[in-house]
Amino acid sequence: MLGDMDSAPVITQRPATPYVAITVTVTMDAIADVVPPLTQEVLAWLEARGIQPAGPPFWKYNIIDMERGLEIETGLPLAEPFDGPNDGSDRVHAGLLPPGRYVTVTHVGHPKTLMDATARLLKWADAQGLTWDVSPSPQGDRWGCRLEIYRDEPGQDMNEWETELAFRLADQTAR
What does the alpha-carbon distance between residue 50 and residue 59 come to, in Å, rounded to a whole number? Predict the structure, then answer.
């Protein structure tokens, strides 16, 4: 176990998963105010097109620089890739979560405790000798796929939220 409210980490194979999302760059201080409303915007976008999400909402951390900012996609998985028209005026875009090996852990607790849960997961993986799918860039650490999947229910006490962390491992065959 990583912490009192975390499940044991598991290495699992995840398939490629189509999704739609809005991408935003924010500072750590602004995440709570900026990103959650975008999830509602993506849900409304899907609803207007008669598309049902294939799972719970997620935040995909593309670039992480704790000092300067984070590039985050707030999205929803789909059963099939979105192939409808997009005239470029929508903020919502389609994407594909990459397949591969991921380390996953479920954290139960307020979203404010996710930073500590993430730190524990990173430390655990380091002790196991695991290598993440991440590389340095001028903007910050660029992750191949680093997800927070929100499995909470509307109206649920935030201290009881279940959030799955799913971080993609580096492809060992390329080494």
Answer: 22
The residue behind tokens 């059963």 is 79
Q: What does residue 141 show for φ and ψ, rounded to 5 degrees?
A: -70, 120
CA distance 69 to 23: 13
Closest CA to 145 of 123, 130, 167, 117: 167
pTM of the model as a whole: 0.91
Dihedral (CA of 109, 11, 23, 140) sign: positive
Complete domains list, the chain, with CATH: 10-174 (3.20.80.10)
pLDDT digits (tens, 9 = 90+) for 7-35: 899 999 999 999 999 999 999 889 888 99
DSSP code of residue 6: B
Report the 10 Å Cβ neighbour count for 120.
Answer: 18
The residues with which 37 forms a beta bridge, in sequence order, are: none
Answer positive or negative: Cα dihedral of 124, 130, 135, 136: positive
DSSP string covering 44-101: HHHHHTT---SS--EEEEEEEETTTEEEEEEEEE-SS---S---S--S-EEEEEPPEE
Name the nearest CA neighbour of 86 among 159, 24, 35, 20. 20
